[in-house]
Amino acid sequence: MKKSILVIAIAALGFTTASAQESVMFGVKGGVNFADITGDDFGDAESRTSFNLGLVGEIPLSNKVSIQPEVLYSGQGFDVVERDQDNVFDTDGNIEYQLDYIQVPVLAKFYLVDGLSLQAGPSFNFKVSEEIDYKPLEDGGDVDFDEAEDFEFGVASGLEYKFNNGFFIQGRYNYGFTDLIKDRDIHNSVFQAGIGFMF
Hints:
Blueprint: H1 2-13, E1 25-38, E2 46-60, E3 65-80, E4 95-113, E5 116-133, E6 142-144, E7 151-162, E8 167-176, E9 187-198
Antiparallel strand pairs: 1-2, 1-9, 2-3, 3-4, 4-5, 5-6, 5-7, 7-8, 8-9
């Protein structure tokens, strides 16, 4: 599995470099995830707030179109929040289902105006950890879990604004088409907001 992740990551970052009309750019990015699970076979849950962090490339094909491959660590899952008798959230009692991935999105990037771009494309996601944390606000409480599929095919889309100095901000939505658990209508749904810098 680790070899597969490495091969796809290298291929994604090097994709179409030979045909690019301008210099390939590389950068770093990170941000916050608002992750949830959706589907007919899943009940209510609270969004898990986590993070994403990784590397990004941009391969210009023209003045208005680029390919943007990325390799990201993405914290996902959801929160199960215990309630007291008055139906008030007890944040010290919440339980996190932590489902983390290495994401390899390969996005088409269309510049709408100078600096502002629309991005969309497939995302190849590899599960790296899955556990239930009964004490997310403390050390300990982790219980290993192995129900989710190891690989997920998804789609990512969003907007980005890149400043002239290479700094950028972006918002994105990710949806997993693969059933989270085999033959069950349960899917990852993640909003990401982040910043980055192109060197």
